[in-house]
Amino acid sequence: MNSTIILITGANSGVGYATTKVLVSASKDFHIIMTSRSLTKVKTAMAELEASKPAGSLSALELDVTDQQSVDTAVAHVTSQYGHLDVLINNAAIGSRGPDVMKRFQDCLTTNVIGPAVVAAAFRPLLLKSSNPYSLFVSSGAASMGKASDPTDAVYKVNIPNGGAYRVSKAALNMLVLQEWIKYAETGLKVFAVCPGFVRSNLRGKSEEEVSGWGQAGDPVVAGEMILGIVKGERNADVGKFVWKDGVYAW
Ligand SMILES: NC(=O)c1ccc[n+]([C@@H]2O[C@H](COP(=O)([O-])OP(=O)(O)OC[C@H]3O[C@@H](n4cnc5c(N)ncnc54)[C@H](OP(=O)(O)O)[C@@H]3O)[C@@H](O)[C@H]2O)c1
């Protein structure tokens, strides 16, 4: 029986997939529950990772962060199978696309803010049964108010196509993280906002140009390695903060 139970949302793609790959390769003690809004997609992703016979173990679960029923069903499954959860990684998100401002904001806020809020609340009782619980929220450095208001910072004028709704949603997520930390710190829940860096994924679209961020995006495995470090306790000095691989960002 694996001793550390980890659940990650949006595990079939990009940062979620790469993080799962790093975690499951790192220790036989890790069991990673890969979740996705599509059971077919996450089972395919799991089969790919299992082909390399990793040290740890995997399971696949459907979880749509915008669907309360789906979240509740996932919680019931984890409760009956494991009785607790050690690490929750709220990773799933969408970018903002399309010309309709109302729809962009509604979609981004629903998936990137309300989704993690619902998931965090639903899994919190299971996390609080762990002797060493971590709650991670994957955010974005482009949402840091400190960076975004600094004319010398690269994100001050960053050109994310239709990026307003996405950046606003991640800034709101950061406030959610801060509140989660302040409210539950005394329980031992270690809460982090995490910037994965600018990495290859489907967030910007599925063409090679978009996946590669027009040739600028790095390897999401680097984000997975940072998350592994957090799970191993190597970043405990930064608990309650907005971390990136080499330091801490201003909220
Ligand atoms: N890539 C970057 O450069 C970058 C930079 C900063 C922050 N981030 C953050 O990194 C995280 C992961 O994104 P990514 O870059 O890896 O993009 P990605 O490849 O598009 O992965 C996003 C994942 O979220 C899933 N998802 C979307 N809506 C969902 C829902 N309603 N319920 C459950 N899952 C849902 C997607 O599922 P489908 O496959 O079904 O769409 C996919 O598995 C996000 O929080 C993102 O904001 C990424």
TrEMBL record:
GO terms for cellular component: cytoplasm. One of its GO terms (biological process) is secondary metabolic process. GO terms for molecular function: oxidoreductase activity. It holds the Pfam family adh_short. InterPro entries: Fungal_SecMetab_SDRs, NAD(P)-bd_dom_sf, SDR_fam. Belongs to the short-chain dehydrogenases/reductases (SDR) family. This is Short chain dehydrogenase/reductase. It comes from Mollisia scopiformis (Conifer needle endophyte fungus).
